[in-house]
Amino acid sequence: MHHPISHWLVQHRLPLFILSILAVAFLAFGATKLTVKSDYKIFFEADNPQLVANEMIQNRFSASDNVLLVLNPANGDIFNRENLHAIEELTEAAWQIPYSQRVDSITNFQNTAVDGDDLMVEDLVQDALSLSPQEISQRKEIALNEPLLVHRLISPTGHVSALNVQLNLPEDQTMAIPVVMEKVRSIRQEFAEKHPDLQIMITGVTPLNNAFNEMNQKDSETLIPLMLLIIVMLVGLLLRSVSGTVITVLIIIFSVVTAVSSMGWIGMPINNINFAAPIIILTLAVADCIHLLSYYMMGLRKGMDKIEALKSSLDVNAKPIFLTSLTTAIGFLSMQSSESPPFRELGVVAAIGVLFAFLFTLTVMPQLILWFTRKAPAIDTERTAQFSKLADFTLRHPKKLFFISLGTAVFCIGFIGQNELNDDNFGYFKETLEVRKAADFTEANLNGVNIIEYALESGSDQGVNSPQYLKQVDKFANWYRQQPMVTHVFTFTDVLKRLNRNMNGDDPAFYRLPESREHASQYQLLYEMSLPFGMDVNNQVDMNKSAMRITVSIKGAKAKDIIDMEARAQAWFAENAPEMTAIGASPSIMFATIGQKNIESMINGTVIATIIISMILVLALGSWKLGVLSIIPNAFPAAIMLGIWGMFVGEVNLAVAVVFGITLGIVVDDTVHFMAKYLRGYQEHGNVEQAIHYAFEHVGAALVTTTVVLSLGFGMLALSDFNVNAILGIMVSMTIIIALVFDFLFLPSMMILLSRFIHPTPKTSVTQKAATTDRVVEGQISEGQPLGAQSEAI
Length: 794
Fold this sequence. Notes:
Elements: H1 4-11, H2 13-28, H3 49-60, E1 66-73, H4 81-94, E2 100-104, E3 110-115, E4 118-123, H5 133-144, E5 161-167, H6 176-194, E6 198-203, H7 205-239, H8 242-265, H9 277-301, H10 306-333, H11 341-363, H12 365-372, H13 387-396, H14 398-413, E7 420-421, H15 434-445, E8 450-457, H16 467-481, E9 486-490, H17 493-502, H18 517-530, E10 547-554, H19 559-576, H20 587-621, H21 624-635, H22 637-648, E11 651-652, H23 656-685, H24 688-715, H25 723-753, H26 755-758, H27 766-777
Parallel strand pairs: 7-11
Antiparallel strand pairs: 1-5, 1-6, 2-5, 3-4, 8-10, 9-10
Helix pairs in contact: 1-10, 2-8, 6-7, 7-8, 7-9, 7-24, 8-9, 8-11, 8-12, 9-10, 9-11, 9-24, 10-11, 10-20, 10-23, 13-24, 14-22, 14-25, 19-20, 20-21, 20-23, 21-23, 21-25, 22-25, 23-24, 23-25, 23-27, 24-25
Subcellular location: Cell membrane
InterPro entries: MMPL_dom (IPR004869), Mycobact_MmpL (IPR050545), SSD (IPR000731)
Membrane topology: Multi-pass membrane protein
C-alpha cells in the first residue's frame, strides 16, 4: 500500500500534467513584458541618502553623465602640431554625439586675457597646424600651470590628455545609452584611421552604464547555455539514461521559463544581478529530478513495473523534495532584507523558480517518466558500495574527525576579519574589459576615477559672489587638495582667481579671490558673456548663483578610504563652516557605503531564516534534538569560506552579504538527505554504525553528484566579466563544496559521538523492528505519524 499522496499524484498524472503545461504557457506570456535596466542606480533604493544627494546635484547643476575619451599619443607628447590638430578634430566631432551638452578639451579650454579694458575669452588652441613651435610651447606652459586642466584634461607632464563629453540623457536611458556608445565608437574608429599614432580609450559614467548592459546580455547568451550543456552531460553520466536526461532538461526549462516570465508579470526588470536566477534555478532543479529518477530506476531494476516503481519513488522522495525546496526558498527569501534592490529581486525569482521546480517534479515528471522511460540502466545509480569505505573510516575515527573538523572550522573562521569591503563601480568589471582598462589607465596616468561632489550653499541668490562665502569655498578646496589620494579639485573659485589676475595686469600677486562682491559679480558676468555656446558655467554654479559645485577626484582609494575622506570633510565643515555643510555625493560614495549597509541589513534576514529553517527541520525530523543538530553543520560552511577568502584574497564586495542567504537553504539539503537515510538505516538495523553505513551507501553518490552540479552551476558565474556575479559564484560554489565535506566528516562523527543523546531509549525488539521495516519499505506510513518516525518519508 503506497502513501495516499503518491497514489493520487500517479492516478491523476495526466490532468496534473495538462494543467501544469497550461500554467507554463500562461506564465510564459509574461516574457513579452520583460524589460532590461542595467545602470549603476539599480543597486540603490530610491530614498537612499547618497543617491538622493547625487540626484540633487545632477538636477541642480548640469548632469554628470559623461563620456571621457582618454588620448595616449605614441610619441608621449600631446603638445605638437599633429596631436593638437587631432584633438581639435576630435573635439568638433564629439559635438555630434547624441545628447551631447558640453565638450571640454585642452584645445577648447576657455583661456582668458585682457586687451585694454576688454576681457578676451578664447580657445587655448586654434588652428594647431598653423602654430609655430614657440606658440605651441606657450600654450603648453599655460595648460600645465592651469589648475582647471592639470590632472583633469592633461597630465602634469603633458604625455596624456582627455576629452570630456557631458551628456543630457533622457530619464529612461535604456535606449539612449547604446545610441551614444555606437556613435562614440564610430568616431573612434574614424579617428584611428586618420590618426593611428593617437590611441583613444573610452571611460566615464555612460560607458560604465553601457558596460552593465553589455555584460548582462553577454552573460545571458553564454553562461546559461553553457551551464545547461554541462548539466546535460552530468545528468547523463549519473543516470546512464537518455530519456532520464531529456526529462530532467524539460523540467529545468519549464522551471526557468516560469520563473523568468514571472518577472514580466510583476514588473521586475532584468539586471546584472537577477539575471543569475536562471543559472541558480536550473542547478537546483536538477537535484529534485535526480532523486526521483534514481529511486524510480532502482525500482525497475528490482523488477517492479513502471507504475509501482514510480509510486515507490514518490513514497520516498515527495516529502524530502518538498522539505529541501521549502528550506531553499526560505534561504532565498531571506535576501528580502538586503539593502540593494537587485539582490532582493534575485531572491524572489530564485524562490519562485525553486518552488515551480518542486511542483513540476511532482506534476509533470511522473507523466514524462511513464511516457519516455523504457528500461532501467544496468548500473545502480542509487547505491554506491564505495562509500562504505568512507563510512568505515568515519566509524573508526569519530573523535578525531569531529575535533579536527571543528578545529579547522574555528581556525578558518578566525580569518574572516582579514576581509575588507571594497565596492568600486569600475572595480565591478574584470581587468580585461575596455571600460576597466580605460579607467585603470586614466587613474595611472591622468586623474583618479573616483570622485566626491558637494553642493556648497551660500544661503541666498547671488550669494556665490560673497567674499566671505568664496573664501570658505576656497579654504575647503585647499583643505581637500592636501588630503592623501586627492589628485584634483574642480572649483569655480579657480576661475575667479584667474580673472582677478587678468584684470590686474596678469600680476601673479593677484592670483587670489576678488576682495569685494562687486568685483566678483563683474568678473563672473564678463566671463559668462564671453563664453561660446555650450561652455557656460552651469556645471559649476547653479542658475540662481546660490551654490557652487565642488568635484574632488581621488586616486587609488578603496571604499573605506572614500568613506573616511567624506567623514573628515564633515568634520571640517563642523569646525570651520557649519553653515555650509553639504553631504558628499557621487557613484563612488554610493558604492562605497552600500556594501556595509548590505551586510548589516542581511544579518537580520539570515538570522530569521535560520530560525525558521530550524523549526521546519525540528518538525520534519520529529525531534528537536535532530533538528538542532542538523543546523550545526550548516552554520559552518559559509563562515569557513569567508575565512579562507580572508586568508588568500582579503577583499570582498556587496555580494558577500547575500552568500549566507543563498547558501543557507541549499546546504541544508545535503544534511536533510543524509539524515533521512540515517534514520531509515537506524529504523531498519537498530544501531548507529549500520545506520551510518546505510546513509553513506545510499545517498553518498547522489550528494556528490548534486554538489558537483550545484558548484559548477554557481561556478559558471565566475566566468562573468561582472565581478559582483563572479565573486558571488565563486563564494557560493566554495560554500557548497565545504558543506558536502562537512556533511561527510563532521555530521556523521557528531552523530556517532552524540548517539546516546539522539537515541536515549533502546531500539524496539527484532519482531517490532521487522514489522516496522516492512511497513516502511512497502510505503505503509500512516499520515498521522511524526515525520521523524517515518524514516524515508522525509
